[in-house]
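seq:
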Amino acid sequence: MKKFYAITSILLLIILISGYASAAMPDENMKRHVFDNGLVVITHEKHDNPLVSIHIWVRCGSIYENSDKRGISHFYEHMIFRGTNEVRVGEINRSIEKWGGTVNAVTSKDYTQYYFVVNKKYALDALKLLSEGVINTQFDPTEMELERNIVLEELNRTVNNPENYVIDMFNKSLMNKNPYRWPVIGFDDTVRSINREDFIKYQKSYYRPNNMCVVIIGDFETQKILPEVKSIFSRFENAVVPTFQMKLDDPQEEITKIQEDMGLPQATIVFGYQGPGILNTSEDICVVDVLAFLLGQGQSSRLYRELKEEKGIVAKLQVVYYTSRYPSPFLVWAVTDRNKIDVVEKELNYQFNRLIEEPVTDEKLNRAKVLLESTYIFGNETNDGLANSYGFYEILADNVNFSKTYVEDIHKVTKEDIMRVAKKYFGSGNYTIAILK
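struct:
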């Protein structure tokens, strides 16, 4: 699943489901439009407040980068606020804030996303500004160097964070071909090497209307706003997007264990397997999401209860699966005493084998499904949250309607499904474990 929220009361979750489902969930108000230039526009009218949220999604993230340009997607995200021929440096932020709105951006391994929320009176003005920055940034050399220093500072903070460091260790060990193994932020030498010509080439290759999706949620009239959006994006040329061939790893034939000793007071462990990707195994996504909640979301989850509360062998624990376009990791992140590493590894191996051999109880399965359903509904309550769901599934799955059937698919998950996907993804027993201590 894309994101998790900390909600602990099952009673509250049931109230959320009954109270918010009709208002928050994707419904027939969602419309998908495709312009002649290939731009996908998804609209959903919600007239409960005078706000409009607009997201621009670009199908380019770190997995699409050349090896010597790692980090260019994230660096590009920073540069869109650094001016074009028509928009001054900082004008996007200043104008949208002046109009009472907020603006932000995020780079992932699969996509880059730019978004704002603003009063409906200024929605199109804000979109004109943001689209100009996103597609037409000029990469002034002076501004590039200023922003490069900011990116490098962010990179240093990231690589010196133990949690990020051990996850990078895990990814590189689990995957030997799959580009999900590389960090989004890149590396010091590759970020330093990126020049203006690299940016221009990247822009012309990926930042084109036929490789983008615009999501509009809020207080507007679809038939009035669509011609305006079409006019805004008709200014930008299309391009032939470079062919992308995903490099998939060979099946793991043995247990892989990697560790580093930095003299830390506690050990951080990342343990896991290769999970599904939504593009080719979409039927497994909901089941794996339920499985993640069953194992490690909330104090009643299996691993939290048994490893932390009952056996006391971990101090912290989280199960993580981020839905991605292609196969990506399913992992357990845990903090433990340095002398309990072997005990935790043995216990995690047992717990994953248990999923294959022992059906979960109805009570535990239903608890996981209720928590997942409530998390999803709660996440879709705001305009931004709903825009996230639509854009996410359009870009990753090529199927925005995945968001409309997600809750229904959660309801369909059975104990047999849990055992099936556990066997499919964990059945080899050849896990990867990274240890930082």
